[in-house]
Design goal:
The chain has about 400 residues and is an alpha+beta fold. It is built from 16 helices and twelve strands. The strands form two sheets. Strands 1, 3, 4, 5, 6, 7, 8, 9, 11 and 12 form a ten-stranded mixed sheet that branches. Strands 2-10 form a two-stranded antiparallel ribbon. Helix 1 packs across helix 13 and helix 11 packs parallel to helix 15. The protein is elongated. The protein starts with a helix and ends with a helix. The relative contact order is 0.19.
Length: about 400
């Protein structure tokens, strides 16, 4: 305990240098934590995917639709419990800047809600949505963003489906977990299909993709092969994959950005380590004669090691804790800077416990690594050489 007290007092012998080092470590940990939060948010949808859900899409590309008649064929395959479908709408609300939220035309037969139990909506709102053809359900975050409430009429200008489309908000859902996306705008697929049958009949009767709920996740591979085999050599062949793999396909489009962020986070850790190592090296050099005196008084190498490593850990713990505290205002500032794009790019943006734990582990590891060489040199230095040193 006395050695720890001595290590603590050593940290205050050069207050300015110590405080600047602590502040530097705090900034590094804050930056690392913010970058990790961005990366985690990027993968939030993937991590929230369900193992018992498969996605069936056109083998050529997601841009090519599938016939709605595939639904009954897919449902007849053994191992499948529920089948639903959706179609990307991609309309414009007010202008391009305000349209960054997911808009999906869904199969409103009720199976969609069974397949996605994380979508929590009051029963009365769900019933109202199912009754009304032009009804819509919106996520809590997008409703808060545009100040929408139950009964509001929202007009969206179609892009893939031309024309003005009026929707009446009949429900506002929340996610079962923080990682669930609360920015969806979903409505009846039948609403757009009925208009297409009048205006563009050749485009009617098609959906974007199917979502399948299976009984046993361990059978996902076999069921996926069975689905694709059923539609082999048809006019619209399919590719069936797990929901996780399907979402990873979108994330992989941003691989270059994610790799760059990971490299930056490693550089930040390296800079932090260099700053701390420089501080500990200077402190050790300045106290060589003091450590020699301690050895003369009977202190062993392990005592010297404890003092130097303890001082390094005190500095890094102080900087790490301060940095972890700073992550939260940095996250809030990042959200404000992103503005309306935040919900579209990062539907779930939270500092996770794993990020905080990793940040603290990195700070402790940096403290130990930076102190190893100075501590070893001081502990193994001969007393006569240490007493001969001046300054």
């Amino acid at each position: 305990m006395e050695l720890i007290r001595l290590a603590f007092k050593n940290t205050l012998r050069h207050k300015l240098r110590t405080f600047l080092t602590i502040f530097g470590i705090a900034i590094a940990i804050c930056a690392f934590g913010l970058i990790r939060t961005v990366i985690v948010a990027w993968y939030a949808g993937v991590e929230a995917s369900a193992p018992n859900r498969l996605v069936v899409r056109n083998a050529v590309s997601l841009a090519f639709p599938l016939p709605v008649s595939y639904k009954e064929t897919i449902r007849s395959i053994p191992g499948i419990e529920k089948v639903s479908f959706a179609h990307w709408f991609g309309g414009i609300y007010i202008d391009e800047r305000h349209s960054q939220f997911g808009q999906f035309a869904i199969d409103a037969s009720g199976a969609w809600f069974d397949i996605f139990p994380e979508v929590i909506i009051p029963p009365d709102q769900k019933a109202a949505f199912l009754r009304e053809r032009n009804a819509a359900i919106v996520g809590a975050k997008v409703a808060e963003r545009f100040r929408w409430k139950i009964g509001d009429t929202v007009r969206i200008r179609g892009t893939f489906f031309p024309g003005d489309w009026d929707f009446v908000i009949r429900g506002i859902y929340k996610g079962a977990q923080k990682s669930n996306d609360e920015t969806w705008f979903v409505f009846h697929w039948q609403y757009i299909d009925e208009r297409l049958r009048k205006t563009e009949p050749e485009r009617a009767g098609y959906v974007g993709w199917y979502t399948v709920k299976i009984a046993d996740p361990d059978m996902a591979g076999d069921i996926a092969k069975a689905i694709d085999q059923r539609f082999k050599n048809s006019l619209a062949e399919t590719i069936t994959e797990t929901e996780r793999a399907f979402l990873m396909g979108f994330v992989s489009m941003s691989d270059a950005i994610l790799i760059a962020l990971q490299i930056v986070s490693m550089v930040i850790i390296g800079v932090m380590l260099l700053v701390l190592a420089n501080t500990m090296a200077m402190a050790s050099r300045e106290r060589i004669s003091e450590y020699a005196v301690l050895k003369t008084l009977g202190f062993g190498a392990r005592h010297i090691l404890t003092i130097i490593i303890g001082e390094s850990l005190i500095i890094t713990l102080a900087g790490g804790i301060l940095g972890m505290v700073l992550i939260y205002p940095a996250k809030d500032g990042f959200e404000k800077a992103m503005g309306d794009l935040m919900g579209a790019i990062f539907p779930a943006f939270e500092v996770t416990d794993a990020t905080l734990i990793l940040s603290m582990l990195i700070a402790i590891s940096a403290g130990l690594t930076a102190a190893v060489l100075p501590a070893w040199r001081s502990a193994t230095l001969r007393i006569t050489d240490g007493l001969r040193r001046v300054g």
